[in-house]
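Readers outside the structure-tokenisation community will struggle with the description of the input data as it stands. I therefore recommend that a typical entry be quoted early in the introduction. An entry of this sort, consisting of the sequence and the corresponding backbone structure tokens, reads as follows:
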Amino acid sequence: MTLERTISTSVIIPTLDEQHNIESCICSVSAQGVQEIIVADGGSEDDTARLAKAHGATLIPSERGRAKQMNAGASAATGDVLLFLHADCTLADGAIEEMRQQMIAPTTLAGYFRQRIDNRHPFYRLVEVGSNLRARWLRRPYGDQAMFFRSNFFYEIGGFPDVPIMEDLLIARNARARTRLKQMKHSATSSARRWERDGIWSQTLLNWEIAVSELCGIPLPDLASRYKGSRETESPNSATTTS
């Protein structure tokens, strides 16, 4: 048995009414030989729970809220590595193996994947370039880049802060105070549904506005209200926090 195969992986997926995405999300990681898939559901009223169990995931009911759900999933996980995958995202073939190879080194404590968006429009290639450069240069990966942590390190930094928005940036900030987050060559592909629904420029400008506002110290509840108001027809967990 090779060393990397002794590194077990738990994939944690927060969901809320994700029946149209959960199958592809789960299948993208189950096909790569992960040891455990946990769906932390915030009270879906559609077919999400049934589909998750039908595809081999362990369903964990949770209080609604992405941070709460991911922490609940982590508390039930048994893997050496915890990988957090949004329900509207999929991982590229080979991504799990690349992560395992990186985690052989005991100094590797956390990382994330490159972003790809599921739309062929050239604009999205520019968004991807910007996101990947931001994550590498500023060490600010977002949740739709499928962040992962050694389980003991995840708990040492306190897990995801229980906040209404931007829990991904906050945990990345806490992690990078202790270690260097590794960017993988493989990608996590996220849905383009927010841009398609709200408009490419409108959604991109909103994302930038929220990110800059957080850096300027605007209270997170105010940012959450601003973001929620922009997507009133969308479930709280059905899109990434920012991109």
User: Anything to note?
Assistant: Strands lie at 9-15, 36-41, 58-61, 81-84, 89-91, 110-117, 148-150, 182-190.
